Amino acid sequence: MASSLQPAAAAESATPVTAPATAVAPQDVAPYDALFLYSFGGPDKPEDVVPFLRNVTAGKGIPDERLEEVGEHYYQFGGKSPINEQNLALKAALEAELARRGLDLPVVWGNRNWAPYTTDAIDELERLGAKHAVALVTSAYSSYSGCRQYREDLAVVLRERGQLGSDGSTGVQFDKIRPYFNHPGFVQANIDAVLDAYTALAAAGGSGQRARLVFVTHSIPDTMEAASGLWQAPYSRQHESVAALVTSAVSERLGHDVAWDLAYCSRSGPPSQPWLEPDINDHLEALAADGVRDVVMSPIGFVSDHMEVAYDLDTEALATAKELGITAVRAGTVGTREPFVRGLVDLLLERAALARGEEVVEATVGDLPAVPSVDRPNCCLRRHEEPTGIPALCSEDMYQ
Ligand SMILES: CC1=C(CCC(=O)O)c2cc3nc(cc4[nH]c(cc5[nH]c(cc1n2)c(C)c5CCC(=O)O)c(CCC(=O)O)c4C)C(CCC(=O)O)=C3C
Ligand SMILES: [Fe+2]
């Protein structure tokens, strides 16, 4: 088990992180006339914190104590999440990459939980005269929180605007880029970030090159895990696939087998409800008990250093490591790293070719196939086998 204290077996051979040779890179954005960068959102100032948390948690049964605690995380950072600036940086990087390739496509940014909201983004798409946008969500894996909730929120907002027809939409039409955890660009950017972290640890002295590699992602309830990735492999398994690829490339570069684990952060919900484990703090404790002294934490579950990273990992988990006498370094997220941004534009072109009905070899690395761009009905529900009747765009059931 990847999450046990036993080092996971290194992958048989290092898979080269490049697109398959047969993949012909299409260079056409048609039928799309806009790229919709769709994210979570976060507060910009202290007065935003409580209204933001209300938006995030509406109807989700998160205990009040947890909300107060999470509010404190934001106040410790001046009431401002780094996420909005990070999304603006990603938007600028995407615009630069599109321009570099001579692709003419406006990028519009919007969030589920804070301004600019979904409806603001649709207003802007309409102002630009967009008819068919492709959505890129800032989440690499399948799950309700990282996939379906974006598609539901988009459908609900379109319905509120009187623009949701039986074919999905009567206003701007939306497609979505597939979850990209196993795209070569995302994996390569994570490999680069982890290698940088090993270099930083070695510079700090000690036995850094031998550090344990601990991958971290957002915990989700077991029922959400069971409903995720129905096409082939659930949320946790998708992370294990990325972890094995990153570990294999890092082991090859360092010249020895690196041991890895997968741990989880940012659990919420009542204690009675099972969520994915082990928690990163508990896991560090177990590692310390096992004699581990050096750790590289790689947050493969997140695409930027937003609050879950800044607080749950950099503040809390690094403090836990210090108390335990572990020297720990947190690797960067993919952020605006070049292989990641280039990969996102490749994914956009791949999605456009699919929308045009062309034969496409989807670029993937590792042991899992590409997630379908049009989701299966009821995929990534909030709770396994509990359809809510809320429509979700970009799934087969919307187009029946
Ligand atoms: C899988 C996943 C991702 C990764 C994929 C992705 O990146 O999308 C993610 C990202 C994020 N989560 C974020 C913030 C929050 N998530 C919460 C609550 C929850 N997250 C969940 C899951 C995920 N969340 C779940 C199952 C809940 C319980 C409620 C529910 O069942 O939906 C809460 C409520 C309080 C709390 O419970 O912690 C907050 C404030 C921010 C913004 C950070 C910033 O402001 O910089 C980001 C990027
Ligand atoms: Fe979250």
From TrEMBL:
SUPFAM superfamilies: Chelatase
Enzyme Commission (EC) number: 4.99.1.9
InterPro entries per UniProt: Ferrochelatase, Ferrochelatase_C, Ferrochelatase_N
Subcellular location: Cytoplasm
Record's keyword annotation contains tRNA processing: no
Binding residue positions for Fe(2+): 218, 308
Catalytic activity: Fe-coproporphyrin III + 2 H(+) = coproporphyrin III + Fe(2+)
Primary location: cytoplasm
Gene3D superfamilies listed in its UniProt record: 3.40.50.1400
Class in the EC hierarchy, top level: lyase
Residues involved in Fe-coproporphyrin III binding: 81, 150
GO molecular function: lyase activity
Annotated pathway: Porphyrin-containing compound metabolism; protoheme biosynthesis
Keywords, alphabetical: Cytoplasm, Heme biosynthesis, Iron, Lyase, Metal-binding, Porphyrin biosynthesis
Pfam families for the chain: Ferrochelatase
UniProt record similarity statement: Belongs to the ferrochelatase family.
UniProt function note: Involved in coproporphyrin-dependent heme b biosynthesis. Catalyzes the insertion of ferrous iron into coproporphyrin III to form Fe-coproporphyrin III.
NCBIfam families per record: PRK00035.2-1
Protein name as catalogued: Coproporphyrin III ferrochelatase
Designated gene of the protein: cpfC
